[in-house]
Design brief:
Shape: globular
Number of domains: 1
Strand order of the largest sheet: 1-2-3-4
Structural class: alpha+beta
Radius of gyration: 14 Å
Low-confidence stretches: none
Oligomer: single chain
Strand content: 15-25%
Number of helices: 3
Length: 137
Amino acid sequence: MTGTGTPSDPWQLQTAPGTSAYTMHRDDSSDPPSLVCQVGSTTLRYDARAIEDLHAMLLERGDWVDLGAADEQKPAKDGTVEAWGRSAENPLGGWYGLRKGYRGRFGMYLPPLLEALGLVELEHNPRNNRVRALPST
């Protein structure tokens, strides 16, 4: 990964299959602090708590979890990172995505960031990728 995660030097990331490049940076001036994900001309925003919360959930599960990426308008497969990112049972009690109409794809864009930060192990298959937490050091 390159970049420091600032607006002027965003993280340069790839989706798990390696088919799409995107950037992400922290915006601590927003309320709540957010992760700004730029995919082509589309901007997605996720609550910045997603990094710690997703890592904690993966540590608790202790095994591989399917990514299950889906657009906001489509249902997420149960038991996936995507389903957890929009569930009333997660620490936020709902969507980590902050921009209505663009709240989905949590399972596509957050796990590669966690991998780049050294928090998870991520599969890089053409389809049906999974993620699991690396133990905290």
